[in-house]
C-alpha cells in the first residue's frame, strides 16, 4: 500500500469515528430527562429573612387586648345598671344603692348561701372583677377554689379589683365567703366573670350575711 492510499484510508476512519461520536452524544441528549432544564446557580451569600416569634410581645399584646375587652364589658354593664335603676349618673346610682344598704343595715340577714350556677367551658383561666356596689364600708371576702383558699382576705372597694384564676380540668368550684358585713349589713358585691378571651361568662350581685357564701362551678373540658 502506497502512502497516498494509506492517508486516504486514515481520513475515512476519522470521518466514521466522528459521526459515531456525535451520534452517541445526540442519543444521550434525547434520552436524558433533565436535558434542557436550567438550574440557576445557588447564591450562598444571599441574606435570608427569618421571622422569629416573640412570645413576650405576643403575650403582652394579648393581655392588652383582654384588658380592653374587659373594660368594654364593664362599661356596658354600668350603662345597663343606670337604665335598670332609673339613674342618669353613676353618682345618682351610688346614692340609691347606698341608701338601700343603709336602711337594710337595720335588718338581720339570715346566713343563706347563694348558688350562682354551673358552667361548662374549655377556658383555661377565668378573670374576675368585683367591687362593693353600695357603701365602701369595709366588706371583706375570702375566695376558695375546690376548698383551697386562694385569696385569704380581699376588702371590697368602690373601684373594681381584678384577678385571674387558673382552672384545672374537670370541676372547679369557686366560693366567695363573706368574712363580715362591713359597717352596713349585709356584705354587698357586684362582680363579673370572663373567660380567657374576655367573653362574659357571668355577672351578678350578692347580699351575704357573715359566714355565708356565693359560689359557682365551672367544669373545664379539654379543647
Q: Care to describe what's here?
A:
- There is one protein chain.
- With about 220 residues, this protein is α+β, with helices and mostly antiparallel strands.
- The chain has one domain (about 55-220).
- It is built from three helices and nine strands.
- The chain has helices at about 5-30, 55-85, 90-105; strands at about 115-120, 125-130, 140-145, 150-155, 160-165, 170-180, 185-195, 200-210, 215-220.
- The strands form two sheets. A five-stranded mixed β-sheet has the order 1-9-6-3-4, with no helix packed on it. A four-stranded antiparallel β-sheet has the order 5-2-7-8.
- A hairpin with a 2-residue loop joins β3 and β4 (about 150-155).
- The chain is globular.
Summarize it.
With 223 residues, this protein is α+β, with helices and mostly antiparallel strands.
